[in-house]
Design brief:
mainly beta, Ubiquitin-like (UB roll), Porin, 16-stranded antiparallel β-sheet, 3-stranded mixed β-sheet, 3 helices, 21 strands, 6% helix, 50% strand, elongated
């Protein structure tokens, strides 16, 4: 109601608010979940039955459901209760993605040659929301067996527990790095502890065995590391007598993440920040620190801008002389700096092959464009990107001028066999000796 003040020629406005009756949610009903148990969806709801209706809680419930890998869309509607002006129901309609698949395939990669893969993965086994996967991959560079089990609600308040077993036999030279053979076996357990709606603390601990075999092409750096960090050899050992080494370690990793993204696949709002610290002890003593950032926000014409950054650093402690050669960071390839050959950037060994670094810096800026004419925007995006990054042999050797850059286009497809990414790119500041790979693709790339 306006009130005129004639003395100073002003008007005061008074708002009279008549608050209505608070609405209470009577029932929350779910439809469309033919494979997923209702209890699995209900535990993600922040708006509960018999509570006062809050728009903010309903919105957060929608986002939590959207973030489940086995759902493609979520719609929540309010339905008035007949004869009551203080009650309403929520109708939650979901569309499910096929969450289980059996994979058997034969493919080809420029860096790994012919690839045979076999796997059974289910992100929502028996509709419980638990993940179980068995994988086998065989290529020119490696042979890998893996098992993973994850219960996202080991406790009712959202503490997760998982187990992981992997065995990998790798010919490192076939991965475009220093020449050696390594068999890695690891077994671990992890717990994820939510400390708030967006923040999670994770701890993982396990055991790992690494069997190293040298080859005629093994570089001096690897030989010198084995001599200095193995009880089988001493400073008087002839490098020609070094055939390999076996290292057993216990490892633990603690990490903290804040995730406000509206979904894990093709997020268009929110950000992810995570930091982790891994410590290994036993035959080798070293640590690795990693930081990751991702942010996404919508732009014009239903496009999404993504920015990603990744920094990693590792070093040894106690009697270990340096970060083990098989734990070093690499850059180049579809998962880091596109348009450069996989793992090709950074320091080289005495034979001229990529040796990796102890410091990694990766930056990526990308505009994602949905193309409904080709596939659903929930499963396919075309992108225009700019990448930059490199690895360095220590913090003191970091030089921003040495960051390699590239521009290009990408296609990201969340297919029934897993996420696929293709890129066609061109380097913008390559140097003589850089290994260029304009077209690249990867199965299992992170979106």
């Amino acid at each position: 109601m306006p009130e005129l003040n004639e003395e100073d020629h002003t008007i005061d406005l008074k708002f009279l608010i008549n608050p209505g009756r608070k609405m209470t949610v009577r029932y929350i009903n779910f439809t469309g979940n033919d494979r997923t148990r209702t209890t699995v969806l209900r535990r993600e709801m922040r708006q509960l039955e018999s509570e006062v209706y809050r728009v903010s809680k309903v919105d957060r419930s929608r986002i939590r459901l959207q973030r489940l890998n086995y759902l493609t869309s979520v719609d929540i509607k309010t339905v008035p209760v007949e004869g009551r002006d203080d009650l309403l129901d929520l109708e939650v309609t979901v569309a499910e993605r096929f969450s289980g698949n059996f994979q058997i395939g034969l493919g080809f990669s420029a860096t790994q040659g012919v690839i045979l893969n076999l796997g059974v993965t289910h992100d929502n086994i028996f509709g419980t929301g638990k993940t179980v996967s068995f994988t086998f991959d065989n290529s020119q560079s490696s042979e890998r067996y893996g098992f993973r089990y994850l219960n996202p609600y080991y406790t009712a308040n959202g503490v997760s527990r998982g187990f992981r077993f992997t065995y990998t036999a790798t010919d490192a030279a076939e991965l475009n790095v220093s020449d050696y053979l390594i068999d890695r076996t690891s077994l671990s357990m992890d717990y994820g502890i939510p400390v708030s709606e967006f923040n999670t603390f994770t701890v993982e601990f396990g055991i790992e065995q690494n069997n190293i075999l040298t080859t005629p092409g093994t570089p001096d750096e690897v030989i010198e590391f084995i001599i200095a960090n193995s009880e089988e050899y001493d400073e008087n050992t002839d490098p020609a007598d070094v055939t390999g080494a076996k290292y057993n370690t216990l490892f633990s990793t603690i990490s903290f993440s804040k995730d406000t993204r509206n979904r894990r696949v093709f997020a268009d709002t929110g950000s992810l920040n995570s930091v982790s610290f891994e410590v290994d002890a036993g035959d080798l003593d070293f640590y690795k620190l990693r930081y990751q950032h991702r942010t996404a926000f919508p732009t014009i014409f239903n496009t999404t801008y993504n920015f990603r950054s990744r920094v990693g650093y590792g070093d040894s402690y106690a009697e270990t002389t340096e970060l083990p050669f098989f734990e070093r960071f690499y850059a180049g390839g579809v998962r880091s700096v596109r348009a450069y050959e996989r793992n090709s950037l950074g320091p080289l060994d005495s034979n001229g092959n990529p040796y990796g670094g102890t410091l990694q810096v990766i930056l990526s800026s990308e505009l994602l464009i949905p193309l409904e004419a080709i596939a659903s925007s929930e499963t396919f995006r075309l992108g225009v990107y700019f990448d930059a990054g490199n690895v360095f042999d220590g913090v003191d050797t970091f030089d921003a001028a040495e960051l390699r850059g590239s521009v290009g286009i990408s296609a990201k497809w969340f297919s029934v066999v897993g996420p696929l990414e293709f890129s066609l790119g061109y380097p913008v500041n390559d140097q003589p000796g850089d290994d260029i790979r304009n077209f690249q693709f990867a199965l299992g790339a992170s979106f």
